[in-house]
Write a structure and sequence with these properties.
Length: about 220
C-alpha cells in the first residue's frame, strides 16, 4: 500500500516536472517517444522514472525476503541448539529392579529432570538428535544384589542407531552393590537415535535416582 501511494505521488510530481500533455500523440514504444514526438517527451521521461522506481522496489523486496529467510534459519538453529535432557530410571521411593530379561532390552527412563527440545521420549527411552553437532553422552548404572555374596550383574550399553559405542559392566559376587559410569563425547547427525540397552542377564535396581541417562549439545556442526 505504501509503495502504491509513493508511486502515485511520484507520478504527480513527475507530471508537473516534465509537463506531460494529455493531447500528445501516443507511441507504442515510450522509450523512443522523445525522438518521434517532442510534445510527449515529458511523458516518456516520467515512464522511464516510474519503471526505474519499480525495479528498485522489486530489488529491495527480494533483498528483504532473503534477509527474512536467513533470520528464520538462524532462529531455528538457536532453538534447535537448546538440546539437553537428563532422566533417571524411576523416582519411586520403593526399591525396584529393571531386568534381568532373556533378550536385550532398551531401558525406558521414566523420571525426567529436564528435556529441552523434547528430543527424549519417555515411552521408548530413545533420544532423537534434533541438530547435527558434538554431544556429551553420560550413563550411570547401579544395581543391588539384595544380599552380600549374591550374584550381581550391573551392566548397560550406550548405543547410537542400534550400534553399541561403549559399555559399562560390573559382574561379581564380592559385594552387594556396584555401579559404573560412562561419559563420552560423540559427533552425531540430525535424526540419529541414542539409547541405553540392557544386555541379557543384567539388571538395574534403584530407589533414589541412581541410574541416570543424560545428553546435551556441546556445539552444532552446521
Amino acid at each position: 500500500m505504501r509503495a502504491i501511494l509513493l508511486l502515485c505521488l511520484v507520478h504527480a510530481a513527475l507530471a508537473k516536472r516534465f509537463l506531460w500533455s494529455p493531447t500528445a500523440t501516443p507511441d507504442t514504444d515510450p522509450y523512443n517517444v522523445c525522438v518521434k514526438n517532442q510534445g510527449s517527451c515529458g511523458c516518456c521521461l516520467m515512464v522511464k522514472e516510474i519503471n526505474r522506481l519499480i525495479m528498485y522496489f522489486k530489488t529491495m523486496l527480494n533483498k528483504l525476503e532473503e534477509e527474512y529467510m536467513q533470520t528464520e534459519q538462524r532462529l531455528h538453529n538457536i532453538k534447535a541448539s537448546r538440546s539437553a535432557f537428563s532422566v533417571s530410571l524411576t523416582n519411586e521411593s520403593n526399591f525396584n529392579c529393571f531386568g534381568p530379561f532373556k533378550v536385550d532390552k532398551l531401558i525406558p527412563y521414566k523420571h525426567v529432570f529436564i528435556n529441552l527440545g523434547d528430543g527424549y521420549s519417555v515411552e521408548t527411552g530413545i533420544f532423537t538428535v534434533p541438530l547435527s553437532g558434538v554431544y556429551s553422552l553420560a550413563v550411570t548404572i547401579f544395581s543391588d544384589a539384595g544380599s552380600a555374596g549374591a550374584l550381581l550383574a550391573a551392566c548397560a550399553s550406550l548405543q547410537v542407531n542400534d550400534e553399541v559405542i561403549v559399555s559399562g559392566r560390573e559382574k561379581n559376587t564380592h559385594d552387594q552393590e556396584d555401579s559404573s559410569t560412562i561419559v563420552v563425547a560423540r559427533n552425531l547427525k540430525a535424526g540419529d537415535k541414542v539409547a541405553v540397552n540392557l544386555p541379557i542377564g543384567c539388571f538395574l535396581c534403584d530407589d533414589s535416582n541412581y541410574n541416570t541417562f543424560s545428553v546435551f549439545l556441546l556445539y552444532p556442526t552446521v
